[in-house]
Amino acid sequence: MNVKLPDNKNINIEQNSTAFDLARAISPKLSRSAVAARINGELTDLSRSLNENDQVEIITFDTSEGKSIFWHSSSHILAQAVQELFPSARIAIGPSIENGFYYDFDVEKPFTPQDLETIEKKAKEIIGRKIEFKREEVSAKEAYEYFRNKGENYKLELLEDITGSPSMYVQDSWKDLCRGPHIPNTGIIKAFKLLSIAGAYWRGSEKNKMLQRIYGISFPKQSMLDEYLRLLEEAQKRDHRKLGKELDLFSFHQEGAGFPFWHPYGMVLYNQILDFSRSEHLRAGYREVKTPIILNEELWHRSGHWDKYRENMYFTTIEETVHAVKPMNCPGHLLIYKNSGHSYREFPIRFFEFGLVHRHEKAGVLHGLFRVRQFTQDDAHLFCTPEQIENQISDVIDFIMRIYKTFGFEDYKIELSTRPENYIGSIEIWDKAEKALQDVLEKQNFEYQINPGDGAFYGPKIDFHIKDILNRSWQCGTIQLDFSMPERFDLEYTDVDGQLKRPVMIHRALFGSMERFIGILLEHYGGALPLWLSPVQLKIIPISDRFNENAIKVHRIATETGIRSEIDYRSEKVGYKIRDAEVKKIPCMVIVGEKEQESDSVSVRLHGKGDLGSRPLKEFISLLADYNKPGLDINNNF
RNA sequence: GCCGAUGUAGCUCAGUUGAUAGAGCGUUCGACUUGUAAUCGAAUGGUCGGGGGUUUGAGUCCCUCCAUCGGCUCCA
């Protein structure tokens, strides 16, 4: 019989062949790496029989579906291993995830790291047995009976949500309820590693029982696991918490969990970003404002924060009146807007603030600079007419992208988040706002994903996720359209016809949080920041203390040219001082000794690039100054 | 908040079955006066996260609080 392959070629195979037979007919190599098949658009097991004229694609690990199936099967092996070792463990769910898989278990005692090793060993043994994954179609009743006899209550709960006849997958005597498909047999897994144990609520809800989750990863080749572990290690080296300590940028203290302390070097970095952002905003027509951190509780009732955001807010009392510490800057900006009358001629009005906000985060979710309780938003609010919305939003999008590019982020993802359950305003207004945002994205041909229910309580939003060098994605920028606040605060402007009308408000931030953005930057660059952001840009290394005076001269000229430099006066060998500067990831070093003193030059060395020979002192400093600008870096241009 | 792990010198980490707290790096001092990723020597450094308890005796065992780390709807 004939079946069609993805390249539209036909292939003739024997009657009653399975997808696996087809893979073998195409090439033995493919049959060894085959994970599953797609028959007429449907993902299936390789054991599925083919029919005349079927459109068939063999799925391998190389595709995202292939990985997902491979890892899902791995999770079944994990579950089988656990139940062979701990027969009383009840199984919940075990999906594949972005990198690997997990399985949730209900056990009396949480797993220990030693258990993890034992389980991994058992799983590897199961893999070695090359057990076939067999699909069984059963009736809902049969499935129910099976799991009821085994006391698998979580599976019974899952069964309730399944319409039609459920399918089971069998490995030896072990069975799991599963939609499939699965890999043909456990033997194609060549590398299997369990990574961590964690508590996880059944169905993610704090109201449910906490289960024990085991995370793992697997591959069809050992070398792929090695590579994956190497990447994990690389990511650990780039951890901003580690870099922050090593480079003396910031610290955290028990005296204030989630409140970062910025050290002198960190402050230079912080201010470089802040100065750049401020000047770009002013250039783009924003006007800077500053609003108080503590404001009367009544204001937060009016804004809706007290209703919808109270859980995340801190309160304090001033002369018996309750005040809130601001979690957002919008109410403050609204008060400035209302302080005077406005005409359509002023629009768009753009208020911009480096707003220091405090938000209560649960103790367990704090994470370095990524998740803190106090941070500075690069926040702005635009007030405009409804007609101006589209233009304004598209301007903001251009602005955001230009700024990201300066920091070396060229790749990003856009998400449109819609009305959450916890919202204020009418549904009609929400629909209108959501459509307006969508229209802008469509018109500009941006690719975007819809994120249902993830909008702010006062309006839908467009979020920007930037991708770092390790291809991880971070949410930063946000643009939120708001018809509610203008209503609640009774904002007005005089239109061309002399009538008082209600303006529209757009909330937006680029970095989101300065702190978080700095964390992302540090991980992106692995701490080796571009010249313009480096706290110390130039390390001056005298060969011996006979040349200290010359070093001081270099330092003076550098300082006058706006270069941040330091001299290493220590009575150490050059190699020692160089190593120290390299470890601190200082972008540029100059060595001054006999030769340099005589010729009024410096020997130049760039971080990670080694010795670059000598240059006349003044020429070198002015070259450095040329590259000491946002978006530039000496490394690519020397 | 919940589950688990962790908390020892400024940093990175050792510390057996409970009995006088260790190393390397850093810092300080001295010697060396150094040519592109660690010169040598000496000194300094600790309420063992806080509090409580068991014990003749606790870094080690128990309780409690705090902080940090990995997780907590990627759904059969």
What are the main properties of this structure?
Ubiquitin-like (UB roll), Threonyl-tRNA Synthetase, Chain A, domain 2, BirA Bifunctional Protein, domain 2, 4 domains, 8-stranded mixed sheet, 5-stranded antiparallel sheet, 20 helices, RNA-binding
Just name the CATH architecture of the largest domain.
Answer: 2-Layer Sandwich
Secondary structure class reads alpha+beta
Instruction: Tell me, rounded to a whole number, the average pLDDT.
Output: 92
Which strand order do you get reading across the main beta sheet? Answer: 16-20-21-28-25-24-22-23
* Distance between the amino and carboxyl termini: 65 Å
Radius of gyration: 31 Å
The count of strands amounts to 33
Low-pLDDT parts are none
What is the CATH topology classification name of the largest domain?
A: BirA Bifunctional Protein, domain 2
